Amino acid sequence: MPSLSTYILPTQVVFGVGAIEQLAVWVRRLGVRRPLVVTTGHLAHHPLLGNELQALPAAGAEAVVFDRVRPNPDVALVDEAAAEYRRADCDGLIGFGGGSALDAAKAIGVVVSGVVTNGGGSIRGYEWAREQPIRTAIPPTICIPTTAGSGSEVTLWAVVTDPERRLKFNVGGTALIAPAVALVDPRATLGLSPEMTAATGMDALAHAVECYTCDYAQPITDAVALQGVEIIGRWLVRVVQHGQDLDARTMMSAAATLGGMAYGVESAGAAHAMSQTAGGTREVGHGALTARLLGPVMEFSYPAKPERFARLAQALGVARPGMASLEAARAAARRVTQLADELGIPSMRAMGFREVQIPELGAMAFRDPQTLGNARALTQRDYEDIYRRAFEAG
Q1: Cβ atoms of 351 and 325 closer than 8 Å
Q2: How far apart are CA 84 and CA 88, in angstroms?
Q3: For residue range 306-343, what is the model confidence (pLDDT) as tens digits?
Q4: Residue 301: closest CA among 385, 373, 366, 375
Q5: Any idea which fold 194-392 has?
């Protein structure tokens, strides 16, 4: 436990059925007249979004829609959208979608706000490093998640793919990148397929688990992380099996936002170091890849903090009376791997990875900054061993 810690949550969260209907209200309150809507081609026609965009003129605003977001948004996409923002004379952002759209919206905001003060015309110039490159707040930004996974509506981070280096990098770690408002309406997640529901739900679980067990954990993040794990342990299987259950969708939306809040200003751990770096080498879903890696990472990590992982076993409902901490911790790790299997998360082979890549993948993960916060210190060889175990799963 660090002796000195900081927690920042500058985003106002409007949560519950009907939250999206507050969009015009918040556009007006934020003084935005020409927002850039950042979304995908499919979601641009979502009826919930369409209804609210039609209400913007009455609030004195007219939206410009950028609907070319793709999974794992890359440098070129962010820079292209930032150029569109400037051409259209926009003064705010609305992110509508999963983590890719919300991360893209925040990254676009970083470029358009920093280009004048920092001289950086590309998102590449704002990669998180030892010295914080972001010095100007992003424009007023409203995030509306359509998945219950990334928690990007409240995180202080955006993840961007760099195809030239074959990796993903982080932008943020500062309140300057925070959305002004998150409108978390569970109805926006009702159309998710079972596969996407499972993958994004497991991603939310990974956020909560890693933030609870990492070296940056503190009482405030512990509280939201544990609540997120408990909700996911109870509701994830149900929502995958009954996608139109609005109660289940509501609870999972809450868990995803709690998982995002668990980050604070810090990052996660080895599972995310692995999924972000491996995800830069090929086009795979971040949630599914993280889900397949989380259990093996927990298997490696729990001996370093058995009490913390034992508490996760309680949250997941697999702790039994009289269990020793190590036994309960092991049960938590095994439950997460079992859950990935139960939900049909693809194997690493099915995602297109091959065992021959393990040395390269291990080296990339070891260089990722999130390695530093993992519950148990890792070497490159440890990463390779974890990858081998991950290949055995599913």
Answers
A1: no
A2: 6
A3: 999 999 999 999 999 999 999 999 999 999 999 999 99
A4: 375
A5: Dehydroquinate synthase-like, alpha domain (1.20.1090)
